[in-house]
Amino acid sequence: MTGRRHFGSIRKRPSGRWQATYRYDGRLHSSGTFSAKADALAYLSTVEADLRRGAWIDPRAGQVTLRTYANEWLSRRPDLSVRTLELYQYLLSNHIFPTLGQVTLAGLAPSKIRGWHAELAIRHTSTASKAYRLLSTIMRTAVADGFIINSPCKVNGAGTEHAAERPMATVAEVDALTAAMPDRLRLVVLLATWCQLRRGEILGLRRRDVDVLHSTIRIEQSRTFTRDGSSLTKSPKTAAGRRTLSVPANVMELIIQHLERFTVAEADALLFTTESGAPLTASVLQRAWSKARLMVGRPDLHLHDLRHTGLTLAAATGATTAELMHRAGHSSAAAALRYQHATQDRDRVLAHALEALVRPAKVAKLKPQSR
Predict the structure, then answer these.
(1) Active-site annotation holder among 258, 307, 308, 327
(2) Active-site position among 339, 346, 359, 371
């Protein structure tokens, strides 16, 4: 028995259940089966309405697994840097696929995403945020590609990282850390702290980037490392990252000494190399840093914390948001604002300044009022 209408058709199967079929985009599509004829007709009405408003989704598209779709999504992203691609592959392989990889796109319900994120956040809070942001991005593309109608990533705040405040070094500890490093690497500590450079920016510095006459350094490239240890030289990600920084006089003196002792004469020669003259690697620098921080009793400090220390001290001197953005190479004010919090030293300076205002003030004697 077959019934026809202006859109699609329904038929009764030998089992007694009803099935709806319709043709769209040159293909014949069929539904599952329904116990009642009215349900099959209602299904066709819904499909027709979705087609009219451009919200129709091919039922077979949502049956692709997340693993298959995500891998294809990655293969279509030639814009990603090597390090970003490695991060995404790591997050997918280690934190997304083990739980969700075999689930179809249509089967990724918000409740399933919520449960996955909650479990991951208990063990790795920061990683959970990164993994959720990646999954959410992939799902938005799946919506745009017509695989699903809506993204199942609906966990409020799941993609926001709430990193703990990083530790700071005192000025005395910066001096101690500098002394504890090997001679050819002492300048690393000073550049990270007083010029607020990232590790990759430090390792990418060349002789040509130093302007001794004007006491400046130019940041034009950085050297980073892939997971297999390969060196990767690249330009700053943003225009703000490409910048010229004024160098404090005491640091400039040590830069000049470093150039004379440890850097060859060629303009493109890297400032930091091993004793054999090879480009300094992340592992060699990390070993030297680990020893130095243990020697000064600060095993909690990461090298990047020196940049945080320097920017916080710059904020304490009264640097504006724009000035901090320039020093740090930030393109957004939000990143620079975190350094404009009060420090104990700055608070003490303000207290002394207020005291200086009060001290010379004379209290006027009150004259009794006549009645």
Answers:
(1) 307
(2) 339
- Would you say domain 63-144 falls under CATH 1.10.357? no
- 346 vs 336, residue with greater confidence: 336
* Dist CA 181 CA 189 (whole Å): 8
Q: Is 6 part of the annotated catalytic residue set?
A: no
Q: What is the 8-class DSSP label of residue 270?
A: B
| 339 catalytic residue (yes or no) | yes
Q: What is the pLDDT of residues 11-32, one digit of tens each?
A: 898 899 988 888 877 778 777 7
Instruction: Evaluate if residue 342 carries a pLDDT over 50.
Output: no
> Using CB atoms within 10 A of its CB, is residue 212 exposed (0-12), middle (13-18) or buried (19+)?
exposed
**140 flagged as catalytic:** no
Mean pLDDT, the chain, integer: 87
| Active-site option among 198, 243, 258, 308 | 198
To the query of whether residue 348 is one of the catalytic residues in this protein, the response is no
What span, in angstroms and rounded, lies between the C-alpha atoms of 187 and 248?
A: 13
**pLDDT tens per residue across span 158-179:** 888 776 678 899 999 999 999 9
With vertex at residue 345, the alpha carbon angle to CA 341 and CA 346, rounded to the nearest 5 degrees, is 50
pLDDT tens-digit profile of 256-297? 999 999 999 999 999 999 999 999 998 999 999 999 999 999
Copy the structure tokens of residue 213: 């006459």
Q: Which has the minimum average pLDDT: 28-37, 217-226, 338-347?
A: 338-347
Q: How many residues does the chain have?
A: 371
Cα angle at 257 between 253 and 258, to 5 degrees? 115
304 annotated active-site: yes
List the domain boundaries for the chain: 2-56, 63-144, 171-346
**pLDDT at 3 > cutoff 60:** no
208, 214, 304, 341: which one is catalytic? 304
Which of 186, 199, 243, 330 is catalytic? The answer is 330
Alpha carbon distances (Å) from 29 to 32, 42, 58, 230: 10, 16, 8, 50
CATH number for the domain running over 171-346: 1.10.443.10
